[in-house]
Write a structure and sequence with these properties.
The chain is α+β, with helices and mostly antiparallel strands. It folds into 2 domains: about 160 residues, Rossmann fold (3-Layer(aba) Sandwich), CATH 3.40.50.300; about 140 residues, Threonyl-tRNA Synthetase, Chain A, domain 2, CATH 3.30.980.10. Helices cover about 30% and strands about 20% of the residues. It contains 8 helices and 14 strands. Strands 1-6-5-2-4-3 form a 6-stranded mixed β-sheet, with helices on both faces. Strands 7, 8, 12, 13 and 14 form a 5-stranded antiparallel β-sheet that branches. Strands 9-10-11 form a 3-stranded antiparallel β-sheet, covered by helices on one side. Helix 1 packs across helix 2 and helix 6 packs across helix 7.
Length: about 325
């Protein structure tokens, strides 16, 4: 008897949506390895503008040329509209941004192009899949929804509906935008006021962020929080700058996810920080945690009885006891 692949049992998987470009590339590559079938022909991508859909697609499908990408390099309609099923040398995978294409093609032309490619066993990666779902008449084989989280769905006849996926993604995206802007403001204060420019680890928590530092800084977190809140209250405009920089007011700040921000610092709601540095004994990093929104900061109340130094832990991991 043939064993059923584990991917066929997937209903939904959830990941934090990273804000840096390279972290999103890495996540996309991992999701491709874990969830994509070679026989997946219709792939839906759902999320608001600026959520990182194009970046995720580059991670999922390295080398796929995108139309209307986030950097504005490609501003052209998809090759799918010129596809000839009788062309033996036609490409195998097409990218199509429905929101962009609606400015040039009627909806029924977009639906017809998708169906023609699928009938020829070509793969179609459809951004804003929710905009053509009803007219297409059937669901995608796999859907990636991007908001505060990246959610992976393999729909059945019982759903989920792309319309519901879009609704959820749009609803919680605001926390990712607020958290990212707050994270960059903390980084700016650490650099400008404390000269802290050491290599950092960036990670995610619900409605927030983690900055991992090589050494425990002699910085009062209460004061740091007040400095960031002061900038937030100034209502500085936030916009994408040149290259890998975001503009915080008139000041550029290095950022590889420059579009994933609120438009103004006063849109950040209820920013606060965990008032102690937490040591991660595996990486040896001291973690600085910040969150936005109304939910409390959730931390473990119980700690291991002894926290050994990272150097000692590395020695244990690299030299396991012999039997």
């Amino acid at each position: 008897m043939t064993q059923m692949p584990i991917k066929d049992n997937l209903t939904r998987s959830i990941y934090y949506a990273p804000r840096g470009r390279f972290r999103m590339f890495t996540l996309g590559s991992e999701l491709s390895r874990l969830y994509l079938h070679p026989t997946d022909l219709l792939i839906g991508i759902i999320g608001a503008p600026g959520a990182g859909k194009s970046t995720l697609i580059r991670g999922l499908f390295p080398g796929l040329e995108l139309t209307n990408d986030d950097d504005g390099i490609n501003k052209r309609t998809s090759d799918i509209f010129d596809f000839d099923p009788n062309d033996f040398f036609a490409g195998h995978t097409f990218h199509l941004d429905v929101h962009f294409e609606l400015a040039f093609h009627q909806q029924h032309h977009i639906v017809e192009a998708i169906r023609t490619a699928l009938m020829a066993k070509k793969r179609v990666v459809v951004e804003h899949f929710d905009l053509v779902y009803r007219q297409l008449g059937f669901n995608a084989q796999i859907i990636f929804g991007i908001g505060e989280e990246v959610r992976v769905y393999r729909p059945s006849i019982f759903g989920p509906s792309p319309l519901k996926i879009q609704e959820r993604a749009a609803k919680n995206l605001k926390y990712r935008l607020m958290a990212h802007t707050a994270e960059d403001l903390v980084g700016k204060v650490l650099s400008d006021c404390y000269g802290l420019k050491q290599k950092q680890l960036h990670s995610d928590v619900k409605h927030g962020f983690i900055i991992g530092l090589e050494d425990k800084p002699d910085i009062d977190i209460y004061k740091l929080q007040e400095q960031v809140l002061e900038i937030i209250s100034q209502g500085l405009p936030v916009s994408a700058g040149k290259g890998d920089y975001v503009m915080l007011g008139d000041d550029p700040f290095y950022c590889t996810g420059k579009r994933i921000h609120v438009k103004n610092t006063n849109q950040i709601e209820n920013f606060r920080m965990l008032k102690e540095y937490r040591l991660d004994p595996i990486s040896g990093k001291y973690l600085l945690v910040g969150v936005v929104g109304e939910e409390p900061i959730e931390v473990f109340d119980e700690h291991p009885p002894i926290q050994i130094e990272s150097t000692a832990l590395e020695s244990v991991l690299n030299n396991p006891p012999k039997n």
